[in-house]
Amino acid sequence: MLNNVAIKNDNNQQDAALLQDERERELRDFRKAMLYVMEDLDKTVEELKKRSMAIEQSVNIIIIANRNGCIEYMNPIFEKIAGHEKNDLVGRQIREHIFAELSDEEYGGLIAEVFSEKTWRGTVKNRRKTGGYYQCDTNVSPVKDSSGEITHFLIVQEDISEKVRSEERIRHLVKYDELTGLFNRSRFIETLNEWMASSSTGNGRGVLLLSNMDQFKYFNETYGHGTGDYMLKCMANLINSVVESAYGEAGAKTGCRPYVGRVGGDEFAVFLPSVDRERGMEVAERIRSTVEGFRFEDLDVSSTISVGVAVYPEDGKEVKGLFTKVDAARFRAKEMGRNRCHVYSPEDKDIEKMQSKLLWKEKIFAAVKEGRFEPWFQPIMGIIENSVSHYEVLARMVENDGSIVLPGSFVDVAEWFGIITVIDKVIIEKALKHQVNLGKGTNLSINLSGKELGDKELLAFLESQLSETGANPQRVIFEITETAAISNIEQAVTFVKALKSIGCRFALDDFGVGFTSFTYLKKLMVDYIKIDGAFIRRLHENADDQVFVKAIIDVAKGLNIKTIAEFVEYEEALTVLKTLGADYAQGYLIGKPVPVGNIII
Predict the structure, then answer these.
(1) Cis link prior to 313 (omega < 30° from 0)?
(2) CA angle, residues 447, 452, 456, in degrees to nearest 5
(3) Is beta strand 150-159 parallel, antiparallel or unpaired with respect to 133-144?
C-alpha cells in the first residue's frame, strides 16, 4: 500500500516538473515572440517617423482632406508658399481654399474622378494670404481604408510659379525688346510683313520711319552703359507717346494702329499705316522736335535724333526694300548735319553712295570676321645710308576672289560707322607678330586713327599686344595725323606719353597741312615728322616748296626730330631732299607696298 502511495507521489512530482518545464518553455516562447513584436513595432514606428519626416520636409505641398473635403493636415511648405498657418485652414474646405479658382464644373469633375478610384491631375491657381497668386501642378488621389472604402483625399502640389513666369518672360522676349518694352526687330519686321501681305491686294499705303540718336556713342562712353540704357528707355517712351498722339489725329478713323519697335542699339522704327508722305513727314518732324526739346532729368542734358522717312508702296513693296530706302534716308539726314528728317528721294545723287556705304559696312564686318584684313609694308629708306630698315604698315582688305582692296574704299566708311578701331586692332596684332620675324633692326610705323587718341581700351590693347607678341617696343612707331593731334592735343599728349613710357616712338603724319603745328612739336614729343606729299611730289620743280620743306627740316633738326618725306616719285626730288638734309624718303620711287612674304631683308 505504502509503495503504491510512494509511486503515486513520484508520478505527481514528475508530472508537476514536466508541467513547470512546459510553462517555462511557453513563457520563453512568449517572451521571444514579444521581442519580435516589439522589434517589428519599433521598425514600424521608425518607418512611420521617416514617412512623417519626408512629408513634413517635402519640397512639394502635401494636404490630406477627408472624403467630405475637410482639410485635416497640410505640411510646412504649404505655409511657406501660400502664407497660411495650419490653424488657418485645418477644418476648412478644399473647395474654398485649394480649388477656389476652379469652376463648379471643373471641381465636380475632380471629385468624380477621385471617387472613381483614379488620380486627378491638373494645374491649379491659388491665392496667397498676402495677395497675388501662385500656380501648382496638382495630383489628387484617393486614400482607402482596410475595407477598400475611400476615406480621404491626398493632394500633392508642385509650385510652378517661377517656371510659369520664366516661360511668360521667354514668350515676351520673342516679340518684345527687354529694355524698352517695344517690338523687337524680328517682331517689327514680322508685323510689317503681315500688314504688307494684307494690303498688297488693296490700295494700302503707309510710311516707315527709322531714327537713331545723334552721338549716342558719346553719351554711352561718357556716362556709362547704365545711363545709356536710361536714355534709350526715355527715347522709346517719347517716340511711342508722340506716335500715339499724332496718329490719333492722322489715322484713328481707319481702325489701324501704328507700331513702334527698337530695331537696333539706338535705332527705333515706326510704321504708320494708311498715312501719306506729307503726313508721315509731319509725324517724323514732331518726333524730332519733341526729342530736341526734351532734357534727361538725371543728367541735365539733351539729345537729338536723325529720322529717315520712306513711303509704301512708292519706295518699296517689300520689307527689305523699304528698310533699305529708309536706312539710306536716315543716313542722308545725318550727312546733312543731324537733328533733321529726310524723306527718301530717288533724285538724291548721294543716295546710291549711302547705300554703297551700308553695303561696305557689311563687307567690312564680314572681312574682319573671316580674317581678310592684312598688313602690307611700304619701305622707308634712309637717305644717307641709301638702305631700308623701316616700313610703314598699311591695311589691305582681301576680297573673296583674292583681289586686293585699298584703304580708300573702306576707311571713310569705317570711321563713319565707328568701326575703324576694329580694323586697326587686326592690323596691329598681325603687324607686331611679323615684326618679331622681320629682324631685330627693322622698324615698323603703324597708323592710328585720330579718333582713337583718347581710347583707353585701345591703349590697353596696344600695351598687351606688345607684351604678348614679343615685339620690340623701341622698333615700333605709331603714326598720328597732324590735324587729329592738334584738335585733341591733351588726349594726344596723354596717349603719346603712355606708349613712349614703354619704349614706343611716334611720328606726326601729313605734317605741313596746318603749319600751326610747329607750336605743338615739343609738347607732343614726337620722334619723326612726315612731310606731307603735297610739298614733295614736284619738289624738284617748285622753289616755294623747297623753301617750305627746308624750313620744316631745319626746325625738326633743332628739336632733334627725324624727317620723312612722303610721295617721293622722282630721282630729282630725292636728290633735292638729300641736299636739304631730309633723313628718310618714302614713295613709289623707293618701293610700293607689298605683303610680308615679298619683303627682302
Answers:
(1) yes
(2) 125
(3) antiparallel
> What is the DSSP secondary-structure string of 1-43?
-HHHHHHHHHHHHHHHHHHHHHHHHHHHHHHHHHHHHHHHHHH
**pLDDT tens track for 312-324:** 999 888 998 898 8
Residues 6+ apart with CB under 8 A from 63: 71, 73, 74, 75, 78, 94, 98, 154, 155, 157
What is the Cα–Cα distance from 279 to 286, expressed in whole angstroms? 11
Q: Give yes or no for a contact between 54 and 48, defined as CB atoms under 8 angstroms apart.
A: no
**40-to-46, 220, 279, 326 alpha-carbon distances in Å:** 10, 74, 90, 84
C-beta separation of 141 from 150 below 8 A: no
Choices 3.20.20.450, 3.30.70.270, 1.10.3370.10, 3.90.1170.30: CATH for 362-598: 3.20.20.450
Burial of 415 (0-12, 13-18, 19+ CB in 10 A): middle
For the stretch 217-264, pLDDT in tens is 777 777 777 888 889 999 999 999 999 888 765 455 555 789 999 998
Lowest mean pLDDT among 112-121, 294-303, 492-501, 537-546: 294-303
User: For the chain, first and last CA: distance in Å?
Assistant: 148
Count of beta carbons in the 10 Å neighbourhood of residue 310: 26
* Cα-Cα-Cα-Cα dihedral sign, residues 175, 179, 181, 186: negative
- Helix, strand, coil percentages (3-state) for the chain, rounded to 5, are 50, 20, 25
- The pLDDT tens digits for 466-475 are 888 888 999 9
* One-letter amino acid of 346: P
Q: Tell me if 447 sits within 8 A of 479, measured CB to CB.
A: yes
Q: Does the global pTM surpass 0.70?
A: no
* CATH number, span 176-348: 3.30.70.270
Coil, strand or helix: which one is 588?
A: coil
Give the bridge partners for 405, in sequence order: 397
Task: Name which of 551, 519, 375 is nearest 446 in CA terms.
Answer: 375
Q: By CB neighbour count within 10 A (0-12 exposed, 13-18 middle, 19+ buried), where does 117 fall?
A: exposed
* HEC per residue, 515-583: CHHHHHHHHHCCCEEEECHHHCCCHHHCHHHHHHHHHHHHHHHHCCCEEEECCCCCHHHHHHHHHHCCC
Looking only at the bridges linking them, the beta strands covering 150-159 and 443-447 are unpaired
CATH of region 58-165? 3.30.450.20
Which is it for the CA torsion 290, 293, 297, 301, positive or negative? positive
User: For the chain, what are the domain ranges?
Assistant: 15-52, 58-165, 176-348, 362-598
**Would you state the pLDDT for residue 516?**
46
Q: Please check whether residue 330 is in contact with residue 212, taking contact to mean a CB–CB distance below 8 angstroms.
A: yes
Helix (H) or strand (E) holding 282: helix 277-292
Among candidates 376, 391, 393, which has minimal Cα distance to 442?
Answer: 391
